[in-house]
Design goal:
single chain, six-stranded mixed beta sheet, globular
Length: 626
């Protein structure tokens, strides 16, 4: 008889290792079924020992061992994958089971034994950056695949979203369709299992185009991992265990001795600095005319007409030319709704959702006359009041610009021009989004107005692109704000063939000048100087601890207790940017530590963080501090 140490792969089980017995020989990395709290769950075997070797420990145990229910799959994972998960568990302060679960498609656990080829993969680990246009990156990736195939090696091409898979898979698979495998969680379970098994049995080197969950695919011949669109926030999970696929891919590549390539038109500042701080980044060139419009100069029109200018005269002229020349134009606005804010002119309070304490956004519902308030957190809808709910004043004032307001303005000025709109209030699924873009591209002289969601559907450039407004993003108190604005501008600029125009009330801001010139080096220099001064990544590693509680007094007591436990690391306590969501009060604690010491030289801190009660959410290297 043998005693197995297993890791449950299930949510809600916070204990890392559990012990069971079996009379069968079970290899490390096998998937078994065990009983936890009267429920059968899958688990991975991480150690095995004869019962005689642990007999003394069993006698002292306060509980009796249970048997393994069944063996699902023998040697399911590569040992290197398990090692990578263990390292990631230490890094992200999470149980091994949750880490494994985050990087496997759960339906795969139902598969029985399956075989894979025994060819060896990479010979050495190295990390490189590929920062250039999408067209040039694709050409480079195709060359990498050809070279690795010639060596008898496979390539894993990792993407963060299904829309990105759709954008890249067509070009990458050309000529090697038979040896290309596309996998993502949107596929039916039966299809995922079918592709998984085929990918493992294929003797020829293969190209795997997939999301992060499929990094667990146990092909022994993978020699290169390409992680495209490195700046995508979707690589970072928003729920426990708060893993980052970029970090995990780096750990895994080091274990399987594979090359790792980070690709994007603009790599994140911390990745660029950490991996190659002396790298010279060439400008991203564009043949389009670059125009920055100072919207402060448009105030003369407002002073005369009392109508606040939303569309500059230069942009109006450009839209006319688009229609006359039967071209197409994309107009970008970063806000949903009609007006993002409503403020009382007497008590000067912003109207907030009573459950979430987030600003209520005015919306005009499609095919309805009433204007409604919608909370973008809890999605509660209420009719817009005539009076201030706080002081009963009639003097309510709307502020900001939303996509609905811009759409209405464009329709007034250009009623004869066909206009298409794309935002998450209007587009509910990918079919609607693809259909909208298809109709826009097939309509000469038309306008597409959209929020950031348009990047998921627009795959080809048009003649003209204009930014209606991005200034509000600078008001977000987050260290990634400048990078987000710069990256957004670069993406929009890449979609323009003839003219790229930005409307702003901050025309002298260096960021706008660097973005329109494609001067990524200039942006990095200024951004690194600012982050060094404020002690943000890459100069410090951030750990955010989030605490939520309905009772604000209890939250305060819990917060003070946790602060006391962490006082050695000088925690900064602050309310969330939206301090109340669905009646839950939210506060954060922020730690800034030397990145070179994490996690190996911070064992005391790791133990404290691991011991925190489950309501404390520990996020290492958070995507946002808000």
């Amino acid at each position: 008889m043998k005693i197995l140490t297993v890791v449950p792969i299930s949510k809600g089980i916070f204990k890392n290792n559990l012990s069971y017995f079996t009379t069968k020989d079970v290899k490390l990395g096998s998937i078994v079924t065990v009983q936890v709290r009267k429920k059968n769950v899958p688990a991975i075997v991480i150690s095995s020992a004869p019962v005689k070797n642990v007999k003394s420990g069993l006698k002292k145990s306060e509980f009796s061992l249970k048997p393994i229910k069944s063996i699902v799959s023998d040697s399911f994972f590569r040992p290197e994958f398990i090692e990578a998960c263990q390292i990631a568990g230490d890094y992200f302060v999470s149980s091994l089971g949750l880490i494994i679960k985050d990087f496997i498609p759960i339906k795969i656990l139902e598969l029985n034994n399956h075989s894979t080829n025994n060819k060896k993969g990479g010979n050495y680990f190295e990390t490189s950056l590929l920062q250039t246009t999408k067209k040039e990156r694709i050409q480079n990736y195709k060359s990498v695949v050809r070279e690795e195939f010639a060596k008898g090696k496979s390539v894993f091409f990792c993407l963060s979203t299904l829309s990105d898979i759709n954008k890249f898979s067509y070009e990458l698979r050309k000529g090697i369709e038979k040896y290309s495998f596309i996998m993502h969680s949107n596929l039916p379970s039966k299809k995922i299992k079918e592709i998984w098994i085929k990918a493992l049995k294929e003797e020829h080197p293969i190209l795997i185009i997939a999301t992060k969950s499929f990094l667990s695919l146990p092909r022994n011949d993978i020699s290169t991992i390409i992680l495209e669109n490195e700046s995508s926030p979707f690589y970072k999970s928003q729920t426990r265990p708060f893993t980052d696929a970029r970090k995990f891919a780096e750990i895994l590549a080091s274990k399987i001795k594979a090359k790792l390539i980070f690709g994007d038109s603009m790599i994140r500042t911390e990745t660029y600095y950490r991996l190659n701080p002396t790298m010279t980044v060439s400008r991203i060139l564009s043949e389009a005319e670059q125009i920055i419009i100072d919207m402060n100069q448009e105030t003369n029109t407002w002073q005369k007409t009392k109508i606040f200018p939303l569309i500059s005269l230069k942009l109006q002229q450009m839209i006319k030319e688009v229609h006359e020349n039967k071209e197409k134009i994309i107009l970008f606005i970063n806000r949903r709704g009609y007006y993002p804010y409503t403020v009382c002119n007497d008590c000067m309070r912003t109207l907030l959702c009573e459950k979430c304490e987030t600003p209520l956004v005015l919306h005009k519902k499609e095919n309805e006359k009433n204007i409604k308030f919608i909370c973008h957190k809890c999605l509660k809808e209420t009719l817009a009041p005539e009076k201030c709910p706080y002081c009963q004043s009639w003097r309510l004032m709307t502020l900001g610009i939303g996509i609905q307001k811009i759409t209405e303005e464009i329709e007034k000025i250009f009623p004869h021009i066909k206009l298409f709109r794309i935002d998450s209030d209007l587009i509910k699924n990918s079919k609607q989004g693809n259909e909208t873009i298809k109709n826009f591209l097939n309509t000469s002289g038309s306008i597409l107005i959209g929020t950031e969601i348009l990047f998921s559907y627009v795959n080809q450039p048009v003649e003209r692109v204009a930014v209606i407004s991005l200034d509000s993003l600078f008001t977000i108190p987050d260290f990634h704000a400048n990078e987000k604005v710069f990256n957004t501008i670069l993406k929009l600029r890449s979609l323009s063939q003839k003219t790229f125009l930005i409307q702003t009330r901050m025309p002298n801001k260096n960021l706008f000048n660097d973005a329109t010139r494609g001067n990524i080096s200039g942006f990095y220099k200024n951004e690194l100087d600012a982050r060094r001064e404020s002690q943000y990544p890459p100069f410090k590693l951030l750990i955010k601890i989030t605490m939520e509680e309905k009772n604000s007094e209890k939250l305060k007591r819990d917060l003070e207790k946790t602060e006391k436990m962490l006082e050695k690391w000088n925690p900064l306590a602050y309310p969330a940017f939206i301090p109340k969501v669905k009646n839950m009060h939210i506060w954060h604690l922020l730690l800034k530590i030397d990145p070179q010491t994490w996690p190996d030289k911070q064992q005391e801190l790791r133990q404290i963080l691991s011991s925190l009660q489950p309501l404390c959410k520990v996020d290492v290297n958070p995507e946002s501090l808000l």
